[in-house]
Amino acid sequence: MITKIFEFIKARQSETALAAAMVLIAIISFQSGKISALKSFNKPLVIKASSAKVIHTQGSTLRSVTDSQIVASKNSAVYHFLWCSGAQRIKEGNKITFASEQEAQSRGYSLASNCKK
To answer: Is the pLDDT of residue 22 over 90?
Structure first.
């Protein structure tokens, strides 16, 4: 059995050498890619401050309040955050957006009872 394998390789030396070279190049390329990817993980994680106000919501999920994430309906006296179910039920024609909670409160709106920070 082994002699037949050696005879096959000897009869096709150039094809066998080319195939072996291609396999070795593929393995070396793959390992080089892994090494270069691992080197990029050594960089420290940088967290930049933003102007958004970060708050907790139900389920300990972090959400941030930015411009136009506070909405109210023209037909009610309460405001909602976009992730609240009440905000999704407001028709686009009736929707009012606020830049901040303070703006909504200054216009007489209060936070909906089913909408938590």
So the answer is: yes
